[in-house]
Amino acid sequence: MLTALLVLNLLSSCALPAQEDVNFRTLEEGGAGTWKSVIVEDAALPGVRLYTPKDLPAAVERTTLPVVLFEGRDKDPYDKYLNEIASYGYVVVNTAGQEPDKVLKALQTTQGVFPDGRGDLVAWERVGVISTVGERTVLPVRSETLIYLHSSGPRYPAPYLFLTGGEDGPVLQSVYDTFFTEDKVFVAAATYPAGAEGTFSDPYGGSYAMLTLQWLEWVLKDKPWSRTVFTGEECICYFKGWGVQQRNENTVIE
């Protein structure tokens, strides 16, 4: 009997990845979304910060779990914003300036970084990018959408979004230079009078998180009703304070 118990203990210890070097923490009670999130940092993935629903099996019973890669110069200022996105059923990864495909590969092979080691439940084939670094954005081989956050860069071959705080200067001019000359794919420019600070420090990431989620629900979760505020099919008044312009909406409206 003792031998059998020892074997069972050994098998159970092998079934779950060791998580001794993984730091899990909760911010704003896991966010306002249905799938309460945790922020994860793993010694095996230096510099990378992960935001993920805590109960992955429960989440995948009702939704998919796409990946959102965040490319930014800093991590801490965006914690509330990215944590909130994760709580709606996304795996958000702050790549900390590292090559995105290498980060994705490392996450898929380092299962212990996820709660209960369930990285197998992530929809790795569905990837979006949020970038604050503009021209220096490095896109993964596979990605379905791009959000330029307070930045501007090259055109993108699928629907993409510029999200700005309405600040004057070179960034806004660069956004409009690209936006007004895009003639191939759908592009939207959303502006909120928050200045360079955005609403990242507001509870639950503020209005930025809500509009970002509206875009991601459309592009990464195939919910066509979420696109309507960007294409002008529904009133932007549901998002008080925002102004949205769009181009080439005929490419996405059936």
Mean pLDDT: 90
Largest sheet: 10 strands, mixed
**Which topology does CATH recognise?**
Rossmann fold
Beta-strand proportion = 15-25%
Separation, N- and C-terminal Cα atoms? 66 Å
The string of secondary-structure elements, in order, is HEEEHEHEHEEEHEHHE
Into how many domains do the coordinates divide?
1
Gross geometry = globular
Number of helices: 7
Q: Please give the order of strands in the largest beta sheet.
A: 1-2-3-5-4-6-7-8-9-10
Q: What's the assembly state of these chains?
A: single chain
Task: List the topology elements.
Elements: H1 2-15, E1 22-25, E2 37-42, E3 49-53, H2 56-60, E4 66-71, H3 79-86, E5 91-94, H4 100-109, E6 123-131, E7 145-149, E8 160-164, H5 170-179, E9 187-191, H6 206-219, H7 228-231, E10 243-247
Helix pairs in contact: 3-6
Structural description of this entry:
The protein is of the alpha/beta class. The chain has a single domain, classed as Rossmann fold (3-Layer(aba) Sandwich). Helices cover 26% and strands 21% of the residues. It has seven helices and ten strands. It has helices at 2-15, 56-60, 79-86, 100-109, 170-179, 206-219, 228-231, and strands at residues 22-25, 37-42, 49-53, 66-71, 91-94, 123-131, 145-149, 160-164, 187-191, 243-247. It has a ten-stranded mixed beta sheet, with helices on both faces. Helix 3 (79-86) runs parallel beside helix 6 (206-219). The longest helix has 14 residues, at 2-15. Mean pLDDT is 90; it is low at 1-18.
